[in-house]
Amino acid sequence: MHGSTKLKALLSNQLKLLEAVEQALNQEHDALIGDDPEVLQQAANEKSRAVAAYQEASGALSAWMAENRVSDAASLEVHVRGLNDPNLLSTHQRLKELSLHCEECNKRNGTLILRLQEKTGKLLGILRGGDAFEGLYSVTGSKEGDAPGRTLGKA
User: Fold this and answer.
1) Which pLDDT value is given to residue 119?
2) What is the dihedral of CA 112, 118, 123, 126, to 10 degrees?
3) pTM value?
4) Is-contact 21 50, C-beta < 8 A?
5) Per-residue confidence at 53, pLDDT binned at 50, 70, 90?
6) Which residues have a Cβ under 8 Å from the Cβ of 84 and sit 6 or more positions away?
7) How many Å apart are CA 114 and CA 118, to the nearest integer?
C-alpha cells in the first residue's frame, strides 16, 4: 500500500474508532445522570472496548510514523499538509478536534463521577450516624457542633 494511501486508511480508521469512543463517553454520561447501575456498567464496558480499539489503532499509526520517520504529532501534521490531499487533511483535522472533544467529555464524566462519589459518601455517613451530620441543622435551627450564635429563622 502506498505511503499516503496507508496513512489515509490509518487516520480514517482512527477517526471511526474515536467516534465510537465519543459515543461511548456520551452513553456513560447519560448513564451517570440516569442513576441506573446496570446501564452504567454496560456503558463503562462499551467505553473500555472502544478505548482499547482506539489504542490499538494508535499503535498502528505509531508504527507507520516510525517507519516513515515522522517523529511526533507536529511532524505528522507537516507530513499530511505536504501531501496536498484535502481529504486527508480534513480527516486529520477532524481527528485532532474529536480527540480534544473526547478528552473534554472524559473530564466531564470524571468530574461527575467524583461528585456522585462524594454524595454517596455523605449519604452513607448520614446512614451510619458519623460525622456526616457536620453542616446539617438541628431541630432547633442551629448547626450541629456550632458555637452559640443566631439560629436559623431567628435573625
Assistant:
1) 84
2) -160
3) 0.75
4) yes
5) very high
6) none
7) 6
Read off the pLDDT of residues 98-125 as tens digits, 9 standing for 90 and up.
999 999 999 999 999 999 888 888 888 8
Angle at which helices 3-34 and 37-67 cross, to 10°: 160
Please say whether the beta carbons of 88 and 4 come within 8 A.
yes
Return d(Cα 26, Cα 39) in angstroms, integer.
Answer: 12
CA distance 93 to 27: 24
Of all residues in the chain, what percent are helix, strand and coil, respectively (each to 5)?
A: 75, 0, 20
60: left (phi over 0), alpha (psi -120 to 50) or beta: alpha
Side chain identity, residue 123:
L
